[in-house]
From TrEMBL, chain A:
Record protein name field: 4-hydroxybenzoyl-CoA reductase subunit alpha
SUPFAM superfamilies, per database record: CO dehydrogenase molybdoprotein N-domain-like, Molybdenum cofactor-binding domain
Ranges where the Aldehyde oxidase/xanthine dehydrogenase a/b hammerhead domain occurs: 39-145
Organism annotation: Engelhardtia mirabilis
Sequence intervals crossing the membrane: none
A molecular-function term among this protein's GO annotations: oxidoreductase activity
Record EC number: 1.3.7.9
Any Pfam family matching the protein: MoCoBD_2
Key words of the record: Oxidoreductase
Classification lineage: Bacteria, Pseudomonadati, Planctomycetota, Planctomycetia, Planctomycetia incertae sedis
From TrEMBL, chain B:
Enzyme Commission code: 1.3.7.9
Residue ranges of every copy of the FAD-binding PCMH-type domain listed in the record: 2-224
Transmembrane segments: none
Domain of life (superkingdom): Bacteria
Coiled coil: none
GO MF, one example: FAD binding
Flavoprotein is among the record's keywords: yes
Keyword annotations of the record: FAD, Flavoprotein, Oxidoreductase
Chain's gene name: hcrB_1
InterPro entries per the UniProt record, alphabetical: CO_DH_flav_C, CO_DH_flav_C_dom_sf, Diverse_Substr_Oxidored, FAD-bd_PCMH, FAD-bd_PCMH-like_sf, FAD-bd_PCMH_sub1, FAD-bd_PCMH_sub2, Mopterin_DH_FAD-bd
UniProt-recorded name of the protein: 4-hydroxybenzoyl-CoA reductase subunit beta
Enzyme class: oxidoreductase
Organism field: Engelhardtia mirabilis
Amino acid sequence: MASRDQHGIHPPFADADGKRRFGVIGKPLRKVDGIAKATGQAVYADDIQLPGMLHAKTLRSPHAHARIVRIDTSRAEALPGVHAVITGRSMPIPYGVIPWTPDENALAVDRVRFIGDEVAAVAAVDEDTANAALELIDVEYELLAVYLDPVEALENCTDAIHPNPKRPERGNLSKRVELDFGDVADGFERADVIVEDDYTFHGTTHTAIEPHCAVATYSPDKLLTLWSATQITHYVHRALARVLELPAHSIRVIQPCLGGAFGGKSDPFSLEFCVAKLAMITGRPVKMLWTREEVFYAHRGRHPMRLHYKTGATKDGKVTAVDAKILIDGGAYSSFGLVTTYYSGQLLTGPYDFPAYHYDSTRVFTNKPPCGPKRGHGSVQPRFAFEVQLDEVAEALAMDPIELRRANWQGEHTKTVNGQRITSNGFMQCLAEVERASRWKERRGKLPFGRGLGVAGSMYISGTNYPIYPNDMPQAGIQLKVDRSGLVMAFTGGNDIGQGSNTVVRTIVCEELGLEPDMVRVVAADTDLCPVDLGAYSSRVTFMVGNATIDAARKLRHQIAGAVAAEWEIDPGRIFMGSGQVFDLEDRAKCISSMEAFQIAEARCDTLGSTGAYNTPTLGGDYRGGTIGASPAYSFTAHAVEVQVDVETGRITVDNCWIAHDCGRALNPMLVAGQMEGSAYMGLAEAVLEHHDVNRFGLHAGPSLLDYRIPTSVDTPELHALIVESLDPEGPYGAKEAGEGPLHPSIPAISNAVFDAVGIRLRHLPFTPGKVLAALRERRAAETAVGSAKESV
Amino acid sequence: MLRLPKFEVAAPQTVDEALALLAEYGADAMLMAGGTDLVPNMKHGLFEPKLVVSVSAIDELQGVAIEDDGTLVIGAATTLQAVATNDEVRRRAPAFAQAAGLVAGPQLRRMGTVGGNVMLDTRCQWYNQTHFWRKSLGFCLKKDGSLCHVVEGGSKCVAAASNDTAPTLMSLGAKLVFARRNSEGQVVRKTLAVDDLYKSDGAFNKKVAGDELLIAVRIPAGAPQHRGAYGKLRDRGSIDFPLLGVAVRIDLDDAGAVADADLVAVALQARPIRLKKAAEALVGNTPGKPGWDEAVDAAAEAAYGQCHPMPNIPGDHDYRREMVPVYVRRTIRAAVAGEGPVHHV
Ligand SMILES: Cc1cc2nc3c(=O)[nH]c(=O)nc-3n(C[C@H](O)[C@H](O)[C@H](O)COP(=O)(O)OP(=O)(O)OC[C@H]3O[C@@H](n4cnc5c(N)ncnc54)[C@H](O)[C@@H]3O)c2cc1C
Ligand code: SF4
């Protein structure tokens, strides 16, 4: 790893008293785009209106699995107002966000794989004409066997969803990963207690409030410009070049202000290719805005998983071995599925140390909207199962669940059983925080029947060193331009999807160059203007772009401080930059504005600017897949949740959720708390309300915000964000991630709290009132049986 | 966004003008009050009017009045928010006010009206979907198709009455004032008991035609010791339609015993259903006195026996059935205590 990649955890400058203090880092500064969003001035993709713009719509498959025999677009083309109609044949080159699994087409070429799969697209003068034209496209289908159940899809495959002529035996198998670490048999041998059970995680989706939207123009000199509501501009750029067979340098991709993503805008999507192609054909700007229903079909949400776990532990609670078998319902395409399959096993190996671990994960194709990455990609489901199982181990050993977790803590600066390097680790403090805040010791196990407390822990990555497509270039790049006006512009490929990454960039530039927030502006996610960053996924942006920003800003700082020092004929060490001023630490009378300092530097050094980059060190286990999930730093979380269970209605009410999260350093505590609360909200919603599923016909069960039930404000519990700062040696000023980790424990913590409240174990999501009532009945029946058995003895 | 089809809008100022338009356009015209159900249904291709007749500008349809005999008269275009927060309505017809206050969410209650709620279309998970979705399904017999997906082989639509205020109005013995133009072009008014409005056909669960304008809802003065409450089961604390609704009216005599009672449930089948046996179980018993708890349990048990939710609306219908006795019990207790609504948040 280049030395540029590590910048230490401390503030960059010493003050006159020799102490280092942060200027803006750690302050709850408002987001760069906060006011614009609140006042409606922010420009989202759908706000873009261009002269002569056409509107495009997509024809979708009404069948869950069928071969396309024939498509006739002539009637649609003849409709007045229609400018172009395209089908799969217009763009036959397949793509996939993971280069090893390119199994998607912009529009179906010869086969549709779920109800809602894209078949054709129309550009017309307005949406109504485009919609009318869709009705005039004649498609002849030949129906194929439909697979809605992953077991069925795997075991009885007659019409493979993705036929593989070279390896027909693969059937509907998407990916299988089996890995073994340590001596699992010996681990179970040594165990005093073994708990083994089945768990189910249902499907859930992102429900970003902004639906997907893209606008494209194609200029006479053959420049394609695409504005898209994407969270990964760079991969869209690459995919467009591939599918449209254009040189990448003639494509510009821009992400406008984004209304939420949560992983649901990580793949390249059909609409991006379609508007580009339609703009190329018509020579006019083309926009496509999906309906909410279409967003549900595009999905890429959380994979349903059937999980079997076996955990062994000694009498004192030390875990000796973990064995997992996981069946993953992938839906119709691969998407990020290769990574999902690895993550389902790879990311379990903290915050606890276990000496032996085996997992066997299988992802299967089914004829349903494709699954992909959702906040906490691939690891929320196994975390749920395992943290419930740990509670069962604690129960079996009559141990306090927090104590059991403490007993297994892996420690700092260590290595996991699967070879991941752990640096900072604030998990013990997270546990202490939720224990204190929830008044665990006084209340857990002692609340009246129907009320309970539960705990769970987790770990998550701050980006990984797996760059999706193999290359040796930096994972994050940034460019700074210093202007005579006193303004510094930062150009970052990082995607601000509402998480606040542009604010982080601005704050770091301010910190390093001693500027006020309004002296720095950020241009982000525009492939013409900004150096490549790999985008907003895997919680990588603060860590990687943050480090790149320090790298670039520090170079500039040396240049500027050096120039001013030379001008004043003093040692550069005496130059202090802060609050928009530059002065001599030993002679405060020597003080100029940062604008004047920039001008001195520009006069002496020529036009000012710098670049910065970040790359991960070499990480990961020495085995196939060992780099997947290998992160330069891991975040840690513990939740305590307080629930009430209405034993008559079965309804679970979450009253409080205490979220303790080790984010390394909170660069902006307001943004960190926002991410923690948002994550917990999302997890709680998945546990008790949301369910993304299809009905018996393979039709989406309710593709609307009425039927897909995300919690309203009255359904949201009190969320208490407790920030823990472990200061990671490699993060920017010690920062790690905060956007995904804090989701994980909320779901198992609810199950564990319900156990405390009413003595039932909920192992199958979602925790509907009906399931709670059934479990309560079962428990009563078991008690009666025990009671009568006792009597008969 | 889903697009609205093309249509024309008229905003008549008087009842007569509105009725003239309805007569002229016949089946091509539809009335709109708040539009909170009409507009989504038009976007889904369920309603296809050529002319939408807005009733918002008709003064006669607005407001709450109390007649000398204590009858509450509520203009059909009065918003749900207005009745839910009106002190007289809350005092005289608590169940109705509670139900109005639990319809949808705050924004929709400020647009949605009492008349629109009374006249609400039935709902079904196979029906309240987009045109693309229904077309992929092959439609159903309520609209554009010939099969029912709830009752296999069924020839009658069993979509669920899902209007929260309907069962409360039934329990209160409310009457509806309608106006229409007869074949001679004269405006005629009629008064119909709410009980007689609904029929058990989910395709169209009302016994009035599309050319009849609801003018007002008349709720007769209650007994001196009137008690009422509404219980609503739904997934979320806001927005969602009922998965089950229970309206309770209890009239106590001077001694505090139940002199008369009425219970009506909604969101089960095409029309709200009166839980007669459940009500009878209460009569003669005195809240708080020995035998009361047993009477309440008997009412709950009777309701359970009578209610058979079907998989018409989303959610687990077995669970909805299990909740019948629970919500009946709780709503009776709330009514007696002068509390309610029974709702989980
Ligand atoms: C997200 C959402 C959630 C909802 N949740 C609920 C809920 O929980 N409970 C519930 O009961 N409803 C719910 N609704 C439905 C609706 O909002 C309410 O029922 C509301 O009261 C309808 O009133 P409106 O004035 O908007 O009716 P409109 O939409 O204007 O009309 C509804 C129907 O009544 C007819 N109509 C209207 N006025 C008259 C009149 N004066 N004479 C004759 N016919 C008339 C119309 O032609 C139409 O068929 C919900 C709607 C949405 C969109
Ligand atoms: S009950 Fe539902 S599926 Fe059956 S006809 Fe009525 S609306 Fe259609």
